[in-house]
Every structure is written in C-alpha cells, then in structure tokens.
Amino acid sequence: MTSDTDLSTDAADELPEPPMEGPGLFGDPDPAPAAAAPATAAAPPPPAPAEPSQPYRVLARKYRPQDFNDLIGQEALVRTLRNAFAQNRVAHAFMLTGVRGVGKTTTARIIARALNCIGPDGKGGPTADPCGVCPECRAILADRHPDVLELDAASNNSVDNVREIREAVRFRPSQGRFKVYILDEVHMLSGAAFNALLKTLEEPPPQVKFLFATTEIRKVPATILSRCQRFDLRRVPQETLRAHFAAIAAKEGASIEPEALAMIARAADGSVRDGLSLLDQAIAMPTEGEAVTAEGVRDMLGLADRALVLDLMEAAMRGDLPAVLAGMDRAHERGADPGVVLADLAELTHTLTRFRAVPGLRGDTSIPEAERVRGGALAETLTIPVLGRAWQVLLRGIGEVAESPDRRAAAEMVLIRLAHLAEMPTPGEIVRRLSGAQAAPAGAAPRGAGPAGGAGGGLASAVGVPAIGGAPGGGAPVGGLRAVAGGAAVMAEAAPAVAPVLPPETEAAPAPAPSTFREVVALASGRKPMLHAHLVHSVHLVRFAEGRIELRTRPDAPRDLAGQLTALLHETTGARWTVSLSNASGEPTIAEQSREAKAARLEVAGTHPLVLAVMQAFPGAQIREVRDAALDAYGLPPPDALPGLAPGLANDGEPVEEDEVGYLPSDDGDPGFAPLDAEPAGMDRP
C-alpha cells in the first residue's frame, strides 16, 4: 500500500511503462523517435518494406473517445459530469444505460481517469479534463492500473464474485486516488449477487467508486437503481454520425461519397460502434486509391436501391403487377434480401404518411433527396387510409417472409396482395358510394347527433321511429327516469350538461323514487357491486309498484337479497320499501332481456339494404355489435318510452332498432352517419 506522498513527481519515473506488445484501450502509443544514423560516405540502400510492428486496430477501438470532449451525441451527460467534478459532487455509483455502441463503457473509463488524474505536475485533483500524461492516466490508458478493475458481469455473475469485490473494497488503493470498479452488462448478475452487493453499494468506503453499464435497464432491480446516479445515453442522431464518420474517413485518407456515408449512418441506427464497424468494412471494400461509392455500400449492406424501392411502391399503388414482379426480379439480381425490401417499403410508407400529414417535412434535408422529390409527389396522390392499409399489409408481410421457407416467394405474394388492394376502395369510399354522400343542409344538426348531444337516434330515427326517450315526431323528450350504471337513476329529459352545484353546507337531497325495476337495479351499481350483479342475473321481476317490489330469485341468489335491497332503497331514496319474494315465474332477468334485445338488433341490422350492400362489397365481413346511445347501460330502452310494448317492438309489433352510428337512411335519403374512416377535411382526397 502506498500513501498519498508516494504520488509525487519523484516517484513517477519509478512506474513501469505500458507494455510494448500492443497499445492500450484508448489508442496507439506515440511512435518512438528514430535513432540518428551514423554519417557515412555512401548512402545505404533503401530498406525493404517491413511488416507492421503493431496489428491492425479497428476504427471502433482506434478512435475511442479519450475524454469528455470526444464524446458525441451525449451533451446532457457531459454537462452533468463536468458540473459534478467542478462542484466536487461526484457520486459513489453511476448507472450508465443505453443501446449498444453509444459510449457506456467508454464513459466509465473516462470517469475512472478523471477521478485518478494527478496532473502533469503531480499535484492535481479530480478533474473533468484528465491530462493524459500523468502516471495515473498513462496506466489507465494502457489498461494496467491496479486500482481500475473492469469486470464482465456476464461471466462474473455469482455471489462468490461479488464477495471478492466486497473483500477487496476494504483495502485502500494501492496506487491511485480511488478504486474504481467497472461492471459491464451489470443486468447479467444473478438475483443473489445483486442482493449481496446492496450494502456495499449503499455505503462503500470513501475511496471506492462503482461504475455500472447495461443495455437492459429494466432487468436491474430497483434497489440497485436507487443507490446509483442514472444516466441514459441516447442514440446519436444521423447528422452527427455522418459528420463523425466523414472526419474519421478523412483521417484514414479514404474518399467516400456523401450518399454512402448517409447509408452507413442510417444503418448504424444511432450506434457509433456499429457505424464505425460498417465504415471500416466500407473503406476496405474498394481497391487502393478508389473511392467508396454508394452503390458499393448498398451491395455491402444488402439494401435495395432507394430508386428501386420507390419504383416498387409506385407500381404497387397503381396496381401494376408486371412492374411489381419485374422490380422484385431486379432486387433479387442485386442481392437484396426480400425481407429488407419489404422493410424498406414499410419505411417508405411511413415517410409518405408523414409527408401527407405534415407537408412541411418535404423540406427536411435529413431525408434523402429521392424520397423528398419523388416521395413528395407520390404522397400527393395517396390518402391516409390507403397508406394505413399498405402499412398493415407490409407489417404483416415482413413476419410472413421471416417465417417462410421461400423468402422471395413470400415477398412477391405480399407485393401482389398490396397491388391488388390498391385497386379496391377503402371502407369509407364504399359507404360514400352506396349512400350518395349527400351534404347536410346548412344549420342542420351534425350527423350522428342525438338526444343529449350523444350519438344519433340510430336506426329508430332513420326509419321514422322516434328515439327512445323522445316524443313522437322528434319533439321534446319524454320525462321520467332512465337507468344508468354507476349510480342513481337520472332524468331522461333535456337538461344542462353541468349539474347545479350545491352550497357546501347544503346536503344532497335523496334520489328520486325509481319508477321502474331497472332504475332500482341501477341504484345498486357502484354502491353494492355484488347486489347489483345478482339483481341483473339472478332475479325475475314479478310485480313492481311504488314502494313495493315482488321478486322471484334463483338458487344462486343470496338468502338476504330482499333485506339488502330494502336497506339500499331506504338509504338512497329516504323512503321505506317492501320487497317480498314470490314463486310466480315473472319476467326474464335483465341479462336475458339484454341478450334478446341484442340479438334482435343484429337481426334487424343484417336485413337492411345498405348493410347488405356493405357485406356484399366486403366478403367475410360480420356485424359484431349494434350500439345506440338511447339505450341504457343494460342495452334496453326505457320501458316508459313505448308503453305497453315489449323491448324492440314498434306500435305495429314489428321489431325496431336503434344504433348510434345511424347507418339506415332516413326518409330524405340522408344516411345520418359519418364513415368509419372519416378524416379531417383535406386529408381524404388527393
């Protein structure tokens, strides 16, 4: 163990130099000066080219950042760490998370140097700008510092490995100012190892720092995260990657086309290391002295030409099957993977949809020029529903290609399907053609507007039957109570949307006396969930009168149901009710009535000519549900709206139907509803 006095400049010369067999973690060492040759009368012959003294280092290691100034795309992280060092507020544990190749481990190594740097004169302290020339910095750069330990948590993930760390942290640093433990992929530690580390991580010795890096932050226990300062390293933008790769290519003496750089930056997907690996491969692809072309990078990445992708999209959107298959043949000849072709088409579909939604994006220079020019023109001819349908087909087709034994055939089938669908109208267009798409007269209520501002009166209003709760002929709504789930019964008459606010000192008045059994059942909703469920499914109403209810219960109903219901009515209405049980059959339960009414609505809807036309236009379509805002929470109309009639029957005994989408035509031919895929004006037509 050495004391702080051992870190003086006198002791600096006693430290061993970096090993000569290779460079350190952060780059190549400075070349040794050449020895002066003795003067001779005749110049010696030029030496033969020698083998390189050092093995080749890939660009991702050769240009690894050595300080915070070299980190790109992580401005928030750098700013926070610089301020922490300036204010002497450096935490004892850091959690660095992000996708692969954005600089997590590199940042940890820079922090380790910043913590142990002593400056060129040997008197410096922790700094955000390590000098790189002091013995501590040189030892860390050469990966031989005894107090900076980098462990791979994937292979050191047991309790025994953590126990070794716990035993080692008790001792002071042997050379540097701090002991720094860098655990890469820390999420690979076992649960027992995490638990064994908790106490040491919460209260480590003052000379110990922990630096964790992970790509799976969700797998790290919250107990570990709460003991660390977390930094999320974001993906590096494509513009920053292009500039960074161009600078490195210039340092390497390589000539590369801007379009090729853009392809590499796009393929890197925000990862600097991935992009440098691709750049390294691209530089080695052409012969010496030649430039790296976009065509070569496209072949290297197995990408389809952007122009070819645009040709495929244009041919598919106009339903030109021969052109689609010819385009796939050209892509196959160039070696493009069928799955990549569909992925490029899906990406282009997303770009076209953005152009359609936000036309200003066509001037974004980060988008390739071909997509901005040809894509912008193509987006003008397509609608949002058509692009959305193409997106769904391509998204599903990518999965089909991945699972198919013949990827090319699967991709061609997806494109044939896409071209076939391009000739078919969207559901909104089908409905507009069938209904005539007549414009509503000025001053008329919006389509679908019904009682209380809800959806339209549905099929009932469309066929001339007054909506439930409204007077015949469209007059004022019929008064009375309407059962609603979630509380007491409410008045069915037109009323302001906002209920009057009572003064704080005024108590709420008791609920009005229910006039129907369904309103009694609605009182239990929200207050007594179990009682409400039994009233809906296990009770047959025999007789109902104000203040008296006679019921027949099923065997699964509780024995004290009558007592529970009596107490609820007294609590909510303030009046005493008599609830008795009977052996009479009574009417069906509310659940049974709801099922019958739903079946009747579906039957009526299925016989309407417009619905039949839609079903014929879309083979295999089904009517799944018929909704009506005039119905109560149980799917039944208020019984007082049509007195003396069973639910779902008109005055002539024929079944009627209400549906809030109102797709039945009225007497004047107005369909009374908006199409299902209706869009804001200006977006549904070229």
UniProtKB/TrEMBL annotation:
Residues 1-53, 642-686 are annotated as: Disordered. It is an enzyme of class 2 (transferase). CDD domains: AAA, HLD_clamp_pol_III_gamma_tau. It holds the Pfam family DUF3646. Residues 1-10, 33-42, 642-653 have a biased composition (Low complexity). It comes from the Bacteria. Coiled coil: none annotated. The keyword Metal-binding applies. SUPFAM superfamilies: P-loop containing nucleoside triphosphate hydrolases (SSF52540), post-AAA+ oligomerization domain-like (SSF48019). InterPro entries: AAA+_ATPase (IPR003593), DNA_pol3_clamp-load_cplx_C (IPR008921), DNA_pol_III_gamma-3 (IPR022754), DNA_pol_III_gamma/tau_C (IPR022107), DNA_pol_III_sug/sutau_N (IPR012763), DNA_Rep/Repair_Clamp_Loader (IPR050238), HLD_clamp_pol_III_gamma_tau (IPR045085), P-loop_NTPase (IPR027417). Residues 90-237 form the AAA+ ATPase domain. Its EC number is 2.7.7.7. Residues 43-52 have a biased composition (Pro residues). One of its GO terms (molecular function) is DNA binding. DNA polymerase III is a complex, multichain enzyme responsible for most of the replicative synthesis in bacteria. This DNA polymerase also exhibits 3' to 5' exonuclease activity. DNA polymerase III contains a core (composed of alpha, epsilon and theta chains) that associates with a tau subunit. This core dimerizes to form the POLIII' complex. PolIII' associates with the gamma complex (composed of gamma, delta, delta', psi and chi chains) and with the beta chain to form the complete DNA polymerase III complex. Belongs to the DnaX/STICHEL family. NCBIfam families: dnaX_nterm, PRK09111.1. This is DNA polymerase III subunit gamma/tau. It comes from Muricoccus nepalensis. The lineage of its organism: Bacteria, Pseudomonadati, Pseudomonadota, Alphaproteobacteria, Acetobacterales. The gene is dnaX.
